[in-house]
Design a protein that fits this description.
The chain has eight helices and twelve strands. The protein is an alpha+beta fold. The strands form three sheets. The protein has a five-stranded antiparallel β-sheet. A five-stranded mixed β-sheet has the order 7-9-10-12-11, with helices on one face. A two-stranded antiparallel ribbon has the order 6-8. Its main location: membrane.
Length: about 425
């Protein structure tokens, strides 16, 4: 296809040049004959018959062939006038025979009427025809050469492309077989294939990270649910040996553990719906100052039970569009974590200034390497394993804030943790 396209373009170009050449040659011939016609018409009006004949005899045949049919004989380069010659500017081709090495010449000309009769004015055009023929031959071989060259270049180009495509297909088959560490090679050319390879490698990186995350989630689920499920199994087996008056209490304990397991799965399903936008937000105008006030009132009782000081600082109210229930759930989770993991007598501060909410505590804090990991599903740091939980709280917080175009950042309070939410 590439070779055919190149050939067609060259043929069109050569055809245009050929047509332009023919038109230019014809224009030159017509211009030359018109000039000679005007010259001899003017000459016949200014000189006598004898001088007119002398001027015709003196004409250079290389410039223009002039022949005059006088009353007595032919004057000029011809022995007779060809038949059916038109009047200029109409022209006609006719042959003449000479005694030179090129015996046959082709001329183009016509008749001009003068005061002394008809005069034939013609110019040689066979040389122009030979030039056009040479041009045509040269163009033909140029087209053939370009066709062969484009075929060779196109073949080499397609082989280079196919070689890389075959390589990519082979590597993609390796990925399909489960070798997710496979990557497409990237050359120094930085061409379109390299751009595609980089994008594909980026997809593979994301896929590998997601698979590792899934494996981590699976391990965490197995770790966190094996203990309560084992307790459920043991408890169910022991029900048959318990006195009737203890069965009700044992059953209530088993149901509580079962509810904890179900809560984990419900939280995972809810998190997925929020992350994928499947849960519709009940949007309404929310005052961040009022939201923080409600959070403070709800958490104050919990903080007092641990003899902790819960402070509230409000500066400059701001309003956003959001789901009040989900935002309250997310922010209360953060405050509840601060209360839960801070020691007795700790101080926890809720600050709000315009569209920034900060929750600070002086508890154990979180190490720098864990500050991003805590937002992953089912990740529970060692200190948190002493408390009941699903390991999905902070994942839910980040998902809810993301749906509200808000960012969350963790930093050190030395000691303690600072959680900054910016809407």
């Amino acid at each position: 296809m590439f070779s055919t396209l190149v050939t067609l373009l060259i043929v069109l170009l050569v055809s245009g040049l050929y047509r332009q050449l023919v038109i230019e040659q014809q224009t030159q011939v017509d211009t030359h004959l018109a000039a000679e016609m005007q010259r001899y018409q003017q000459l016949s009006l200014t000189v006598d018959r004898r001088s007119f004949a002398a001027q015709i005899r003196a004409a250079d045949p290389k410039t223009a062939l002039i022949a005059w049919q006088s009353n007595v004989d032919m004057v000029g380069s011809l022995t007779f006038l060809p038949d059916d010659m038109p009047l200029l500017p109409e022209t006609k081709e006719f042959p003449i025979f000479t005694g030179g090495p090129d015996k046959l010449h082709i001329l183009t000309g016509g008749i001009v009427m003068t005061r002394y009769g008809p005069v034939l004015i013609a110019t040689r055009t066979d040389q122009l025809a030979a030039l056009i023929e040479k041009f045509f031959n040269a163009a033909f071989w140029a087209v053939v050469f370009m066709l062969v060259l484009s075929l060779a270049v196109g073949y080499g180009f397609s082989k280079a492309i196919l070689r890389r495509i075959v390589q990519y297909n082979r590597l993609s088959e390796q990925v399909q077989k489960g070798h997710y560490e496979t990557r497409l090679p990237v050359s120094d050319q930085q061409d379109e294939f390299d751009v595609l390879a980089k994008q594909f490698n980026s997809v593979l990186d994301t896929l590998e990270q997601n698979l590792l995350a899934v494996r981590g989630v699976t391990d965490n689920i197995a770790h966190d649910l094996r203990t309560p499920l084992s307790h459920l199994r043991i408890g169910i087996e022991q029900l048959a040996y318990k006195p009737p008056e203890q069965v009700a209490d044992a059953t209530a304990e088993l149901l509580e553990e079962l509810d904890d397991c179900l809560a984990t799965f419900d939280a995972m399903l809810s998190l997925t719906r929020i992350e994928e936008g499947q849960q519709t937000l009940d949007l309404q105008k929310i005052s961040l100052q009022q939201l923080c006030q409600d959070l403070y009132e709800m958490a104050e009782v919990v903080a007092e039970s641990k003899e902790q000081a819960l402070l509230l600082n409000l500066e400059g109210d701001a309003h956003i569009q959001g789901d009040k229930h989900l935002l309250f759930q997310a922010l209360f989770n953060l405050i509840d974590n601060a209360i839960k993991y801070s020691p007795d007598g700790a101080q926890i501060t809720i600050s709000q200034r315009n569209k920034l909410i900060v929750i600070a505590d002086n508890g154990p804090g979180i190490s720098d390497e864990d500050k991003e990991r805590v937002f992953e599903r089912l990740v529970r740091l060692d200190p948190s394993r002493h408390y009941k939980g699903t390991g999905l709280g902070l994942s839910m917080v980040k998902a809810i804030l993301s749906r509200h175009q808000a960012s969350i950042a963790l930093s050190d309070n030395n000691p303690g943790l600072v959680v900054s939410i910016r809407f």
